[in-house]
Amino acid sequence: MNAEIITIGDEILIGQIVDTNSAWIAEELGKAGIAVTQMSSISDTRWHIRQALDQARERAGLIVMTGGLGPTLDDITKKTLAEYFDTELKLDPEVLADITSLFEKFGKSVSPLNRKQAEVPAECQVLRNSIGTAPGMWFEHHKTIFVSLPGVPYEMKHLMRERVLPKILKSVRLPHILHRTVMTFGLPESTLAERLEGWEGQLPKELKLAYLPNPRHIRLRLSAKGFDPKKLEALIEEQVAQLKQVVGKYVFADGESTMEEALGLLLREKGQTVGTAESCTGGTVSSLLTSVPGSSDYFRGSVVAYHNSIKEELLGVSPATLKAHGAVSQQVAQEMAQGALALLKTDYAIATTGVAGPGGGSPEKPVGLVWVAVAWQGGCLAHEYRMGNDRGRNITRTAVAALNLLRLKILGQE
After folding, report:
1. Same domain membership, residue 405 and residue 268
2. Count of structural domains, the chain
3. What is d(CA 171, CA 33) in angstroms, rounded to the nearest whole number?
4. CATH code for position 316
5. Helix or strand or coil: residue 86?
6. What is the pTM of this model?
7. CATH number of the domain residue 188 falls in
8. CA distance 292 to 262
9. Cα–Cα distance measured from residue 259 to residue 262, given in angstroms and rounded to the nearest whole number
10. Domain check: are 289 and 381 in the same one?
11. Total H helices, total E strands in the chain
12. Are 95 and 118 in contact (CB under 8 A)?
C-alpha cells in the first residue's frame, strides 16, 4: 500500500508555521510498512481540497489529511469532505459527550462553535479524540482509505497512535519494512557512490540504498521490504557486512550515531582521556564532545587559542614557528596539540587551526584551508584539509574531521 499526506492550512503556505506533521506521519507509516510516495500542502479552500483528493486517490491507497478541523469559520475541511463523499453532517452524541467532558475538566461549558465540532459526515467512521475537541474521520471509498485528522500535533499523534495505525493494521496485510543506517565521513557523496557502485548494483531486489548527506556526515540507509522479517534481517546483515568492507575506514558507526558518540565510546572502552586546543573552530570540537552524556569520563578540558598570544602563552607554541610558518600550518597545529597534551595531562590532545572565512585567505592559504593535529605521549600526527568557502560549514566539518582523526588514530588506521 502506498500513501499520500496532505496538510491543509494557509499558515503553512505563508511560512507562518513549519509542517512537522507530515514528517512524523511518514515516519510512523514507514514503520508500519506503508510507503509514503507524496506529500502536499494546500490552502484552506474547497476547490484545493477537492482537487488534492481527486489527484491523490489516483496514486495512493491511503490518504492522510491534517488540518482544517477547528471550530472557526475558516476551518472548512469537514464540510468539504461531506460534500466530496456526497453525504451530510450530523451530530454525533458520543463526540459531543467527549467535548463536553473535556470542557467540564476546565470548569467550562460547551460553546455553540465547539458544539458544531461534534457534527461529522454521516458516511464516515468517527475516530474519537479524548484529548481535543476535533474528532478524526475515516472514509473508505472505491478501495481507497481517506483519513482526516486535526492539525494540532499532539492531537494528531494521539489519533494516529491510538486509532489510525491499529485500524490500518487490522484492515490491511502489510509488508515488514526494516531500516539500517551506516554512518560515513571523509568521502564526498559522488566518490562514495562510485566506490559503492558495484556493491549497490548487486543488491537483492528486496533492498534499497539511500544516500543522506549533510555537512557532518553521510548516512547510508539500507531499507528492506517484504513479508518474511527473518529473511530481511539476514539480507541486511549480509549486505551491511559487505558495505563495511567496501567503504572501510570511512565508516564510523553502524546505526544512528554521531562522530562524537562513536569517539566517546572508544575512549570510554579504553579508559583514555582527551583535551582540545582550538583556533579556527572556536570551541566547536569541545562542544561536540561535551554534548554526549557522560563525556566527563573522558573529556578533560579545552583551550580556545584564537589569538597567537594565547597559542604562545598557554600552549607554548614557539614564536619562531609562528613567524616562520604562520598560524595556519602543520607545525603550529602540532605544537598546539603537544602543548594541550602537557597542559591538560590527557592521553590525547586535538588541535585545530585554519582559515574559516569568509575573509582572511590568501593564494598560499585560501579560505577553507585547515590543519588538524592529534598528539599523544611519544607522537603527533597532522592532516591538512581543504573545506570550502562557507564559514559555518568549514567550522563544523573541521570539528568533525578532528574527532575522526583521533578515532582513526585509536583504531590504528592512521
Report:
1. yes
2. 3
3. 13
4. 3.90.950.20
5. coil
6. 0.78
7. 3.30.70.2860
8. 10
9. 5
10. yes
11. 16, 17
12. yes
Strand partners, 277: 303, 351
Q: How far apart are CA 265 and CA 285, in angstroms?
A: 16
**Residue 3 and residue 60 in contact, taking contact as beta carbons nearer than 8 Å:** yes
Q: Where are the alpha helices (DSSP H) in 58-207?
A: 77-84, 93-105, 112-116, 153-159, 165-171, 189-201
- Rounded to a whole number of angstroms, the CA Rg of the chain reads 28
Dig out the grid coordinates for 212 from the structure.
543522506
Could you count the other beta carbons within 10 Å of the beta carbon of residue 38? 14
Match 578532528 to its residue by C-alpha cell.
Answer: 402
Do the beta carbons of residue 25 and residue 147 sit within 8 Å?
Answer: no
Domain containing residue 217: 176-254
DSSP code, position 152: S
The alpha carbon dihedral of 283, 285, 288, 293 has a sign of: negative
Cβ atoms of residues 203 and 239 within 8 Å: yes
Q: Name the phi and psi angles at 375, rounded to 5.
A: -120, 150
Mean pLDDT of all residues belonging to the chain = 95
Q: Which residue has the cell 581543504?
A: 386
CA angle centred on 192, ends 190 and 196, rounded to 5°: 115
C-alpha cell at 282: 572556536
Q: Is 16 helix (H, G, I), strand (E, B) or coil?
A: coil
pLDDT digits (tens, 9 = 90+) for 342-354: 999 999 999 999 9
Q: In which residue are the cell numbers 609562528 written?
A: 322
Verify that 196 and 232 share a domain, yes or no. Answer: yes
Q: Report whether 148 contacts 78 (CB < 8 A).
A: yes
Set of cell numbers at residue 330: 602543520
Quickly tell me which residue has 549497490 as its cell. 200
Mind listing the pLDDT tens digit for each residue in 6-32? 999 999 999 999 999 999 999 999 888
